[in-house]
Amino acid sequence: MTIKQLLGISLFLYLITGCITSHKTTYWINSVKTTCHTATGEKECLMVKKGADLDNTTWQSFMDTIAGFEFEVGYLKKIQVKEKRIQPESPLGSLVKYTLIKEVEKQFDYMHYLDKEWVLTKMNAQVVDLMMALPSLEINTIKMQVNGNGGCNIYGGSLDSLTENIIKFGPLMSTRKACLNDNIESVYLKLMQEVSRYQIKNDCLLFFNEKGDEILSFTPKPIEKVAINNTNKRLHDIWITTSINGGGIKRLSAVPYLEINLTNQQVYGFNGCNEFQGNIKAVDVLNIQFVDFSSTIKACEEPNSVAFMEALSKVNSYRLKGVQLTFFDMNDNVVLSFIKGD
């Protein structure tokens, strides 16, 4: 075999390898992220679905990054991505490099809008009696779970089916308290099992049965406002994190901090990677709860950031001692500790 023939074969193999190791793929990106467990710890990950359509979507965690892609909470994005096989920089590195080619489609995710607490306003198209204990509903589209209060008992169950307009609940289980107050719980739970479709209209959540009849209507649960004079005013300050879930802050890591603003009923801060803000749902001399967090979306390998936000979402009560602030979850476990920042 001549040198010219060898060079020709080498070029042919190179071209084939190039075609194999780099190709174009279509992805749908979910409107929310999830928590991934990796060899180096937990981190926030995209949820993706390969393919051009969203029918019968099963989302998968995506631990890598897509160069050039900008994630937006609340929006589904259809994108084209170049996948190229590479030599990883470390044993734990990815074998594939993902690069955005173009964003094909962007649409508001109504399912993301479901992820909140709702209060019943109508049943069978009739306004409910406001003098009764009103049923509530909380939907988690990531875990495909639902829970709430029927007006007396706490209930919960699974989401068996969910698309942009279809929703069906699995069997709902509830506690069995003897309810002395007037309530509509039994009728409400029966109608919940008949739900097959939904619609978001004027910020309200409407449920319909198979016939298309509107059977339940909800409005977002308002954030509770509390009187500051019934609150420990020393909370209104900046707090530097000293421990997360009982463990110390890793050396050389960015230190998260928290600013509690009782006047605006809000919380702000830095989680070690991104700036964030949220609302104070309830606060008094012993208890405090936070909701509706949002943050910037920088890609970081900072170990504290995810753990800090997860711990903050679990906070149920607190203790102030001198310049030290400690947060506890609903089981009285220490989740966060701080020292006064100024």
From TrEMBL:
It comes from the Bacteria. Coiled coil: none annotated. Residues 115-218, 237-338 form the DUF306 domain. InterPro entries: DUF306_Meta_HslJ (IPR005184), DUF4377 (IPR025485), HslJ-like_sf (IPR038670), Hsp_HslJ-like (IPR053147). Transmembrane segments: none annotated. It holds the Pfam family META. Residues 28-106 form the DUF4377 domain. This is DUF306 domain-containing protein. It comes from Putridiphycobacter roseus.
